[in-house]
Amino acid sequence: MNVTETNLGFLIETPKITALMGGQKAQLANLQASFPDFKFARIKQTHSDIAILSKDNSLDYKIEADGHFTQTQALALCVSSADCIPVLAFDPKTNYIAAIHAGWRGVANSIVPKTLLKLKNLGCEIESIQVFIGPHIQMNSFEVENKVRDDILSSIDFGAHQKESLYHRNLNHEKSLVDLNQVMKTQLQNTGVTFDNLHNLHIDTFTDPRFHSYRRDKEKSGRQLSFICRK
Question: What kind of architecture, by CATH, is found in domain 2-140+198-230?
């Protein structure tokens, strides 16, 4: 697997897929110009736990969902983000690909594990799926009310050897810093994704000016697109 930083973001190339973890310049027109052989499919993201099959791009940005998957070649599955987690997945045995948007509500509702389990029902083996976690807000920048913290942490099984403190740091009796990255990793491992097949960029969108951040820029923030496509 080859990962290269480009003006659009971080490009991931394998013999079977092309993927991009997009930065600020990863807008639809720029992607279409840079990858003219791909047809781009977007979904209307609503912070849900819904994942759908995308067969082509005829319904581009018309279906409400936060994840989609396909076996169709040259169909680039997109998700947009600005602090939320873009997750891209590929099963080299069945050639299914998936693109998933996981904000904190999506993480709390286990959107990524639910999408992978849909792929399992289609014949994928979770242990063979490659998962790429893109730039998103990291723990030191993600301050939330403790109710939100508890909703997020309720989505994972801590196991016999893990402590809850691994996933958050209390600031006071009302707020905490939460590690969405660690929660997502645990969700994936609990679902059956192997450590060697989990690839994480560990980039904080809030502090890194190469990426849009809603928490940093509020209503002035844009969105960056990430995608995965079968060659």
Answer: 4-Layer Sandwich (3.60)
Whole-number Å distance between alpha carbons of 20 and 6: 9
Q: How many CB atoms lie within 10 A of CB 218?
A: 8
Residues 6 or more apart from 83 whose CB is under 8 A from it?
103, 136, 137, 205, 206, 213, 214, 215
pTM given for the model: 0.97
Any residues with CB less than 8 A from the CB of 11 and at least 6 apart, and which?
3, 4, 5, 18, 19, 20
Helix axis angle, 111-121 relative to 180-191, nearest 10°? 20
Q: In which order are the strands placed within the sheet that holds 175-178?
A: 143-145, 175-178, 168-170
CA pair distance 5, 190, nearest whole angstrom: 31
Q: Which residues contact 212 (CB under 8 A, 6 or more apart)?
A: 24, 81, 82, 205, 221, 222, 223, 224
Nearest to 51 by CA among 121, 154, 104: 121
Mean pLDDT per 10-residue segment, the chain (231 residues): 95 97 98 98 98 96 98 98 98 98 98 98 98 98 98 86 84 97 96 97 97 98 98 95
Give me the amino acid identity at 77: L
Query: Where are the domains positioned within the chain?
Result: 2-140+198-230
